[in-house]
Amino acid sequence: MADKPTSKLNPSPPVRTEFSFDPIENALQAYKDGEFLVVMDDESRENEGDLIIAGCHSTTEKMAWMIRHTSGIICISLPGERLAELEISMMVPEKNQDRHRTANTVSVDYKHGTTTGISAHDRSLAALALSCPTTLPSDFTRPGHLLPLRARPGGVLTRRGHTETAVDLCRLTGLPEAGVLCELVNDLDDDIQGGMMRRDQCRQFADKWGLKMISVEILAELRKKNEQTE
């Protein structure tokens, strides 16, 4: 089951003569329906593709599949005000030395129905709990094995990061604002160095699994267009 996310291997992946992203409308519907998206950031930034799924749609099977095909360092992006409500503090309160100023908090585990916190089952429960508006600070232990990230106010219009993308995708689809994300990596059978998937490799992966693929920039352009007409 760990090899089957929301859709099975695509028996007839498209034959592409040139690279293209999927229509943003189709991607948003897939996200709302509980599917993973493959999201690229700019080639001049990290040039990485992340798997992103709404935290409220997390399951053990989806989490296990995500862990298998990514770095395994699973994060969940939330607005700063929700992190404050849950009393989840920043990992580095001052002098963040990360190149892109990724806003990592302390890691957490969900207290109830879990064991060590590292399994796909336990991390999925933590993601679901962080997506639930009634969850309390006392429902978590710190440190843990799921890594919350603080999305900046303004989302991708303020910072073109996967962190902000994950929350914006939830907001645009009417889902609780908590998006699970992790970087796609090459299988060691394909890349003995264990490197990151780049754009074309991410496209092949998305086609192989029948997933929609967009970019952070596409989402930012959609937001600018929508908010200019409001």
From TrEMBL:
GO CC annotations on file: cytosol; mitochondrial intermembrane space
Top-tier EC class: lyase
Function text: Catalyzes the conversion of D-ribulose 5-phosphate to formate and 3,4-dihydroxy-2-butanone 4-phosphate.
Family designation: Belongs to the DHBP synthase family.
Highest taxon listed in the record's lineage: Eukaryota
EC number: 4.1.99.12
Record pathway: Cofactor biosynthesis; riboflavin biosynthesis; 2-hydroxy-3-oxobutyl phosphate from D-ribulose 5-phosphate: step 1/1
Metal-binding recorded as keyword: yes
Family matches, as NCBIfam families: ribB (TIGR00506)
Subunit comment: Homodimer.
Protein name: 3,4-dihydroxy-2-butanone 4-phosphate synthase
Cofactor note: Binds 2 divalent metal cations per subunit. Magnesium or manganese.
GO terms under biological process: riboflavin biosynthetic process
PANTHER family the record matches: 3,4-DIHYDROXY-2-BUTANONE 4-PHOSPHATE SYNTHASE, GTP CYCLOHYDROLASE II-RELATED
Molecular function (Gene Ontology), one example: metal ion binding
Catalytic activity, reaction form: D-ribulose 5-phosphate = (2S)-2-hydroxy-3-oxobutyl phosphate + formate + H(+)
Keywords, in A-Z order: Glutathionylation, Lyase, Magnesium, Manganese, Metal-binding, Riboflavin biosynthesis
Cofactor annotation: Mg(2+); Mn(2+)
